[in-house]
Design a protein that fits this description.
Elements lengths: L1 E6 L5 H8 L4 E6 L4 E3 L4 E3 L2 H9 L3 E2 L7 H10 L3 E5 L7 H4 L6 E5 L7 E2 L2 H7 L4 E8 L9 E8 L6 H25 L14 E2 L15 H10 L6 E5 L2 E11 L10 E4 L4 E4 L4 E9 L5 E2 H7 L10
Parallel strand pairs: 1-2, 1-6, 2-5, 6-7, 8-11
Antiparallel strand pairs: 3-4, 7-9, 9-10, 12-13, 13-16, 14-15, 15-16, 16-17
Helix pairs in contact: 1-2, 1-6, 5-6, 5-7
Length: 309
Amino acid sequence: MKVIFMGTPDFAVPTLLALKESKHQVIAVVTQPDKPKGRGKEMQPPPVKIAAAEAGIPVFQPVKVWEEAFVNQIKEWEPDAIIVAAFGQLLPKAILEIPKYGCINVHASLLPKYRGAAPIQYAVINGEKASGVTAMYMEEGLDTGDILKQKEIALEEKETGDSLHNKLAILGGELILSVLEELENGTAIRIPQKDEEACYVKMLKKEMGHINFAMPALQIERLIRGLNSWPSAYTYMNGKTLKIWEADVLEEEYQGEAGEIVGITKEQVLVKTGKGTLSLKQVQLEGKKRMEISAFLRGFPLKIGAILQ
């Protein structure tokens, strides 16, 4: 097939590379415009642009894909299929109708659950036992099209947003090749989504990571893992941000208020929560590097009764 690939972040790169190494011809890559990043605000290309350039594939970065000039460009390419993975813009009907085999999206959840911008992180935050990737026909709605195929994996006990992201990114590349094979053979089956089972998740924001210690320890621990590595879970200690990268849940209950440090040993700091106790295992104080709690305590002694806010 002649394929156009649309994608932007790291998640999309394995799908692009899988297509490049397959029998299909990737005739163009479409990605978001470069954006300023870092303290110097230097313009940085998205990961898909870098991967496409290294592969020698032409790259296009339209500000708005629905503009007539770009729609006409897509028509001129005459693609058999358009493959999309975390592109960042909804495609208009004018583009959706162009390819012979349609526009196929690789989405990082088991639809219809977790439509929207952050399905990977919410799967961890909500304590899901499994996640996966879905290949679906695109339509004008957000992640509402018919399902073509899904691949499921179990979440590990200490799964993080990052670790699940990397697994699903690779799985997406494997999935799309089998879907294209079925489309060519005429064996693909369209499965309408059950809208009544749909769950939408919003884009992640930094303030989501501010820990409310009145929540149960189990929910806090899932939040810590789900927001690892961005935007990360954090609290405040003596006016400074303290990121919490890893923690364990203990059932023991202690007297005190939520957020109070109720126990300290060489290997752990115990914090009271709304239900149960959180044992801090790896932290990072503002301006410092990430540390195991044992190393942190050698340089920053804490006291029982101190409150994390």
